[in-house]
Amino acid sequence: MTLSPKDASQLTREFCGLAPIVPVLVIEDASTARPLAEALVAGGLPALEVTLRTPDALEAIRAMSGVPGGHVGAGTLITPEDVRAAKAAGAAFGVSPGATDELLAACEAEQLPLLPGAATATEAMRLLARGYEMLKFFPAEASGGAPALKAIGAPLPQITFCPTGGISPANAENYLSLSNVLCAGGSWVAPKDMIAAGNWDGIELLARQAAQLGGSA
């Protein structure tokens, strides 16, 4: 049994709709994963993306998956092996910088909802043709920022985006104000120095501030 792209997009849309910001996390030490997730969830950011860029990433996903109220996804999915490992670690959804047929097929086979990346109208159209309607716009700032995403959205109103890459408190509202944007991915809510210091109260405060972006209550 496989997960259809349409159903995958609906599930991914639900995760993305939980808060205006999805924290993009690079975790060096899995022992910090659970308290980090607890701080972010307490601050109002329940959907979390753990990037598969460190040796401890999969263990971090395992630890975070047990946090009440949290929904942990695996980012930087590149290969079918990444997909299977992420699913086995307890990831509720996946995120990729781009999309290949092999990656999409693996996510569908593993029933892992995917937020696939696209940076151009052609890439977005190819994913839409397959049935994906909830996409990641990446790298957002390097690809033209909010003006580019607004322009892409004009002829493709069926697609909703989560822009990621270069998003900060200074420009997040530019994206969140667009009609084709549901949320944005950002790493500023979990600074490396705060994680290393175990400053969970500080991270919770950053999360609370981020949760207010885009007019969210």
TrEMBL record:
Species for this entry: Leisingera daeponensis
One Pfam family from the record: Aldolase
Designated gene of the protein: eda
Keywords: Carbohydrate metabolism, Lyase, Schiff base
Subunit structure: Homotrimer.
Name of protein: 2-dehydro-3-deoxy-phosphogluconate aldolase
Record field: catalytic activity: 2-dehydro-3-deoxy-6-phospho-D-gluconate = D-glyceraldehyde 3-phosphate + pyruvate
One MF annotation (Gene Ontology) recorded for this entry: (R,S)-4-hydroxy-2-oxoglutarate aldolase activity
Family under the similarity heading: Belongs to the KHG/KDPG aldolase family.
InterPro entries, per the entry: Aldlse_KDPG_KHG, Aldolase_TIM, KDPG/KHG_AS_1, KDPG/KHG_AS_2
EC number: 4.1.2.14
